[in-house]
Structures are given as structure tokens and as C-alpha cells.
Amino acid sequence: MARKRALSAATFRRGINLWPPFLFAGIRVMSVGADYRSARVRLRLRRSNRNWVGTHFGGSLFAMTDPFWMLLVMQNLGPDYYVWDSAAEIRFVSPGAATCSPTSSSPTTG
Q1: b/e burial code for range 19-41 (CB count within 10 A of at least 16 → b)
Q2: Which terminus of the chain, N or C, has less C-beta within 10 A?
Q3: Nearest Cα to 84, choosing from 103, 107, 66?
Q4: Residue 88 · residue 104 · CB < 8 Å
Q5: Which residues lie closer than 8 Å to 34 by C-beta, 6 or more apart?
Q6: Do residues 96 and 55 make contact, with C-beta atoms less than 8 angstroms apart?
């Protein structure tokens, strides 16, 4: 079963910003490359996403990066392919005490 036609990157960005897990955690997608090769996300530290010690809740940090590898690769492969994440890992190197802005990118084909 083939997926429907791909959305423009701008429409995708606006739509995913309304997705409840992002909306209620305060996660904002700032940009998606027109070619779907990269996405930049932002999470500002607020009372609603702080943990007990006043730094970013780890679940919000993970949620802000989790879907992008799959979504970017699926958009580049086309409507005949599905991509599934079978595992993921996060290493908390230091406490998130300020705005966090990671950039995700998909591999290029050559």
C-alpha cells in the first residue's frame, strides 16, 4: 500500500508543531530542509518541562529527536518505502539547563 503524496517541508513543519507530544512538551520544529535532509528542533527550559532538579526532563529531550531520522529517510526514499526504528539510545552527557536546539540529518545517497 503506497502512501499519499509527500507534504511540502513547510507544511510538514507547521503540522508537526501541532502534534500533541510536541505541542504539550513545548517542542518546536524550527526548520525542515526543503529536500527533507535536515530538521532543526528547539526546546526551551520551562516550568512545564523541568525535572525535580530544574533541568530538562529527559523524556522531552528524547521525544524532540526521536521521530526525525525515520521521517527524513522516509521522505527521501519515496512513497513505496516505510522506515521503522527498531531501537534508539540517548546519552545524557550533561544536564540540559538552557534552550536545547539539536539538528537531525538524514544520510545522503550518492
Answers
A1: eeebeebbbbbeebeeebbbbbb
A2: C
A3: 66
A4: no
A5: 8, 9
A6: yes
- Alpha-carbon span 9 to 32, nearest angstrom: 6
Residue 18 is placed in which grid cell? 501541532
Burial of 12 (0-12, 13-18, 19+ CB in 10 A): middle
Cβ atoms of 57 and 41 within 8 Å: the answer is no
Distance CA 14, CA 91 (A): 29
Cα atoms in the 13 Å half-sphere on the side-chain side of 89: 2
Distance CA 36, CA 26 (A): 23
Instruction: Chunk the chain into consecutive blocks of 10 residues (it has 110) and report each block's average pLDDT, rounded to whole numbers.
Output: 68 94 92 92 91 91 88 87 85 87 76
Instruction: Specify the amino acid at residue 102.
Output: P
Residues with Cβ < 8 Å from 81, sequence gap 6 or more?
74
